[in-house]
Amino acid sequence: MAEDFRILDFLDYIRSEKGLSAHTVEAYGRDIRSFAAHFQGKEWKAVDPAAILSFVHHLKDRAYASSSVCRILVSIKVFFRFLKREGAISVDLGRYFETPKIWQLVPEVLSVEEVESLLDQPKTDDSIGSRDKAMLELLYATGMRVSELCSLRVRDLNETFVKVRGKGKKERVVPVGKKAIGAVDHYLLHYRGKAEEEDAPLFLSSRGKPMDRVTVWSRVKTYAKSAGIEKEISPHTLRHSFATHLLENGADLRLIQDMLGHEDIGTTDRYTHVTGSRLKKAFNDFHPRP
User: Tens digit of pLDDT for each residue in 86-95?
Assistant: First the structure.
């Protein structure tokens, strides 16, 4: 298929931004490549619902189990949602197929202690450590997506707020704490120079290029390992942790929705399940008559 690079972009996206495990990413890749091979030479924008149905019949003719067909259909649904998000297609074909909700499971979150340990790992006596410290602090302080972090410009941050460009190029303003601001200031003043242009990317790679989400994902993994965190985490875990910790400390769900950039309150509402499960565990662990 002409747009094979779209598959690689998709796999990078679900690995680095959605934080899916290596095993899950491999399964998605296998499913989508099988789907692409069935329509060899056809562009993604030329695939229609009838073509997807013909692929399903092809799988059934090859005696695929119903559970396997369902899983592959979920992969296709998520892939076309990604293509629509990236502007590669004009219509999300996945909406025509009723499949189990994806990425709506109770998300993995870190405890406050685990977050503090993670944020303490980068050493700020060199440019890489200082940059990584600023990135981690900003991710946790704002709950922004890793793609939003990578698109930040120097001008987007002041002493109290950061301007975030989210999905659909929609902008939102999110408050930022002093620790995150201090980490960013240290990085800019000591390793980027006081005369840094305001339109320049906020975070740069070791080669002087704008940071990409795969590199951020890799850095988070490295620091999680050095912090002794055994959970399967990604930059998105800091977003989940940001929302969960705010909710646990009494923040209003609507305010969290605004800071996360969710259009639907139902998307934010899943964090109530996280806090609910924690409350239940605390009750079972500590109440004298659980």
Answer: 888 888 777 6
pTM here? 0.63
74 and 148 both lie in a single domain: no
- Cβ-contact 235, 146 below 8 angstroms: yes
- Reported as half-sphere exposure (CB side, CA atoms, 13 A), residue 112 has a value of 5
List pLDDT tens digits, range 146-182. 999 999 999 999 999 999 998 777 899 999 999 999 9
Instruction: Enumerate residues 6+ apart whose C-beta is below 8 A from 187.
Output: 124, 127, 130, 131, 133, 134
Confidence (pLDDT) at 289: 53
- Structural domain range at position 84: 4-96
124 & 188 share domain = yes
Confirm if 110 and 231 have CB atoms less than 8 A apart: yes
Structure confidence at residue 104 (pLDDT): 42
Does residue 61 lie within any of the structural domains?
yes
Dihedrals φ, ψ of 102, to 5°? -110, 150
For 151, left (φ over 0), alpha (ψ -120 to 50), or beta?
alpha
Is the C-alpha dihedral spanning 111, 113, 114, 120 positive or negative? Answer: positive
> Does the residue 194 lie in any domain?
yes
What is the 3-class SS of 247-264, one letter each residue? HHCCCCHHHHHHHHCCCC
| Pair (159, 59) in one structural domain | no
Q: Which residues are catalytic?
A: 145, 167, 236, 239, 262, 271
